[in-house]
Design a protein that fits this description.
alpha+beta, Rieske Iron-sulfur Protein, 3 domains, 8-stranded antiparallel sheet, 4-stranded antiparallel sheet, binds FE2/S2 (inorganic) cluster, binds fe (ii) ion, 2 iron, 2 sulfur cluster binding, iron ion binding, Rieske_2Fe-2S
């Protein structure tokens, strides 16, 4: 990347790292007594120590000479910006706490005995003014943090672009050492131009075994009644889930040990699944406990580790020992789940994830549904302050996260159902939360679990047939995508690269592909994960 362009574009905030005009020590002058009282409190509450005893980073600001910085210097400066903002915010909180202590002290009944009402009123008025000043300072700090994070995210985007360019340039260099004719030279020259591309071309291959070593949600709990079963395909193998006598779910192969009849065509009785052909019965761990009309043999079919949490049933399809139970996929507090929908789709799960992690397509693709009437912004960006797999869209009030191995979580700010509004998600009064789980079924099939939650209109849950209406909406939106993604898949199968030329708004999709690529290569440290 051009360092000059970078620094110029960023307008590197040198002043940002310099001491603020609002000097904390000066601000506290004359309050040593309060500080002493507070320090006694601190002695009792050691946990506060860690919060406030943070070294002032201003003495360590990197000093670079020259008008323009290279990218590493810029990142270093940005890092100090963030450290300074953090330190400043802690001092602001400390100031407010000290002032609150002081208020308590002034209002102390013992103090009233030796202070006149007039003195107390005067002291309280002064404290009020100081508190107001401290709160103003907090707002300034908040704005600084937001600006610093935005700049950091932007820089990160530039660095990522650079990494992508390096990656494709390396690939090109490998091919450019062949002997050249003039026609070849031109071809090589053309290919030498740095292009940003990933290679995700077809045909769609079988899933890499490393992708199996994760917990996968496969069904909503509410869909699995005591006497029902759910057949699923996962990594090209047929499985069936049902509940045992204890009510806990189990996942066993959906193929009878006797003569390979699909078990899900049978029934569940007393916690066992019965094959519809000759009546053999299996428990949730795959043990055959009944073989009518013959002597019972010692037979066990394959089963997978399985658990149920927060309304979902999860399995571990990999060969490695199962990892710890993953974090909940429930919406944040304040949200109510309104719809849980399952769909079987004729596309590879990676292509579906690419689609879900992309919002820039909305005003072009979803013109009959949620993006009807949306204007096309001059610039769409996905900002990732945490350098990971989550961030927010600009200019849309939407936060989004890719959660490995196959989940997308998003929170959409809305003013009234169906209408987007506001600068960012937090500024919107009402929100819709979505979970998409894209379970890899087979090479060109995905089992999609969709959960939709709202933090408003709780009564909608009780409107009759609302579930059907939500399903209808979800299918309409998905169909708008599906015809395009099916088309991509067809071209991919004929060798087209579906990530031929990613641009800045493709950041999250590209990160998913880089994460998956590293996983399949067996990288020790996966990118974008802590
Ligand atoms: S095939 Fe299942 S019992 Fe015979
Ligand atoms: Fe879409």
């Amino acid at each position: 990347m051009n360092a000059i362009a970078t620094a110029a574009a960023l307008s590197v905030p040198i002043s940002f790292c310099r001491p603020s005009k609002l000097d904390f020590n000066k601000g506290l002058r004359g309050r040593f007594r309060v500080l002493a009282v507070f320090r006694e409190e601190l002695g009792k509450k050691n946990e506060w120590d860690a919060l406030f005893h943070v070294e002032d980073p201003r003495s360590k600001v990197p000093q670079y000479k020259g008008k323009f910085f290279d990218i590493y210097q810029v990142l270093e400066v940005a890092r100090y910006d963030i450290q300074y903002c953090d330190w400043r915010a802690r001092q602001d909180v400390l100031t407010i706490m000290l002032l609150h202590e002081k208020v308590v002290e002034v209002l102390n009944p013992l103090a009233r005995e030796y202070k006149s009402i007039g003195t107390m009123k005067k002291e309280l008025a002064e404290l009020q003014e100081e508190l107001a000043q401290a709160h103003r300072q907090v707002h300034i700090s908040e704005a600084r943090v937001a600006t610093a994070l935005d700049k950091l995210a932007y820089m990160e985007e530039l660095v990522n672009d650079r990494l992508l360019q390096d990656r494709s340039t390396t690939v090109v260099d490998q091919t450019s050492s062949s002997p050249s004719t003039s026609a070849q030279s031109m071809d090589v020259e053309k290919r030498r131009l740095p292009r940003k591309g990933l290679n995700v071309s077809g045909p769609v291959e079988s899933y890499h075994p490393r992708l199996k070593n994760f917990w996968y949600p496969i069904a909503f709990s509410s869909d699995l009644k005591d006497d029902t079963m759910i057949p699923i395909e996962c990594f090209e193998e047929p499985w069936v889930i049902f509940r045992g006598n204890d009510g806990k779910p189990g996942c066993i192969q959906n193929t009878c040990a006797h003569r390979a009849c699909p078990l899900h065509l049978g029934s569940v009785n007393e916690g066992r699944i019965q094959c519809p052909y000759h009546g053999w019965e299996y428990t949730t761990d795959g043990k055959c406990e009944k073989m009518p009309s013959t002597r019972l043999l010692n037979v066990k079919i394959k089963s997978l580790p399985c658990f149920e949490k927060d309304g979902m049933i999860w399995i571990w399809p990999g060969n490695e020992p199962p990892a710890a139970i993953p974090p909940s996929l429930l919406p944040p507090s304040g949200f109510e789940i309104h719809a849980e929908i399952v769909m079987e789709l004729p596309i590879e799960h990676g292509l579906l994830l690419d689609n879900l992690l992309d919002l820039a397509h909305a005003p072009f693709t979803h013109t009959s549904t949620f993006a009807k009437g949306w204007s096309v912004p001059s610039l769409v960006k996905f900002l990732t302050p945490a350098s990971g797999l989550q961030g927010y869209w600009d200019p849309y009030p939407i936060d989004m996260e890719f959660r490995p191995p196959c989940m997308v979580l998003s929170t959409i700010g809305i003013s009234k159902p169906g209408k987007l509004e506001g600068q960012n998600t937090k500024q919107c009064a009402t929100h819709l939360h979505q979970l998409h789980v894209c379970l890899p079924s087979s090479k060109q099939k995905t089992r999609l679990l969709y959960r939709m939650s709202l933090d408003f209109a709780p009564l909608l849950k009780h409107v009759p047939l609302m579930q059907y209406l939500w399903r209808h909406f979800a299918e309409q939106v998905l169909n708008e995508d599906l015809r395009l993604v099916v088309g991509q898949q067809e071209r991919m199968n004929k060798g087209a690269n579906v990530w031929n030329l990613p641009v800045s708004y493709d950041k999250l999709g590209v990160r998913y592909r880089l994460w998956r690529d590293a996983l399949e290569r067996g990288a020790k440290q996966l990118p974008f994960t802590k």
